[in-house]
Amino acid sequence: MSLSSKEEPLTLDTFVRGIWKENPVFVTVLGMCPTLAVTNSATNALSMGAATLFVLLCSNVLVSMLRKSIPKQVRIAAYIVVIASFVTVVDYAIQAISLQVYEALGAFIQLIVVNCIILGRAEAYASRQTVLNTAVNSVGTGIGFTLALLCLGVVRELLGAGTLFGARILPEQFQPWVLMLLPAGGFFVLAGWLLLIDWMNIRKERRALEQQGATVHGQ
Hints:
Helix content is about 65%, strand content about 0%. It has a two-stranded antiparallel ribbon with strand order 1-2. It is built from 8 helices and 2 strands; from the N terminus they run H-H-H-H-H-H-H-E-E-H. With about 220 residues, it is mainly α. The protein starts with 11 loop residues before the first helix and ends with a helix. Strand 1 (about 165) and strand 2 (about 165-170) form a beta hairpin.
C-alpha cells in the first residue's frame, strides 16, 4: 500500500484496485476484527460494509480537502477526529433505521474509528491525492471491503442457519453447522476464501508464464 507522494492520474485502476488488487480483507488482510465478528449473517455483513464505505468516503474526501491545511505534527489526531465525526453520524443513522441491526453490530460500529483500513487510506492516499482521486479510490476500497464481508457472511449464514438475508434457502432437512455462526467459523471461512484466491492467483501466473513461453518458442 505504499504510495508516492506525487499525485497520480485518475484511471480505472484508481477505482478497481481497491476491489481486487488491494482488497482490504483478501489481499492486505486489514480490518480483521469486524470481518470475523459481524459476518455471521449476510445482513450484518452488508450493513457493516455500507457503514464502513460511507465513513471511508466522507472522511477521506474531507482529509484530501484539508491535506494542505493540517500540520504534519497533528495529522493522525486530526484524521481520527474527522473519522470519529462520520462514525457518530453512522452510529445514529443505523440506530434510527434498525435497532436489530444496531444491536447485532454492537460496539463494532464505534470501532470503525480505529479501523486500520480507513486510517490507512487517509494517511497513505487521501493526504497525498486530489479530492476526485480520493473519492474514486475510497468507493472502490469500500466496495471491496463490503464484497469481502459478504463473501464471508453469505457462506456462514447459509451453512450455519440455512438462510440468506433471513430467508430460508436450504431445505428444512439440512442440519445447520452451528460452528459457522461462532467466531471460530469466521476463521475457517476466511481461510477457505484466502486459499481459493491464492490458488486463482497462482493459476493465473502459471498461465501467463505458459503463454510467455509459447510466444518465445513460436518466435
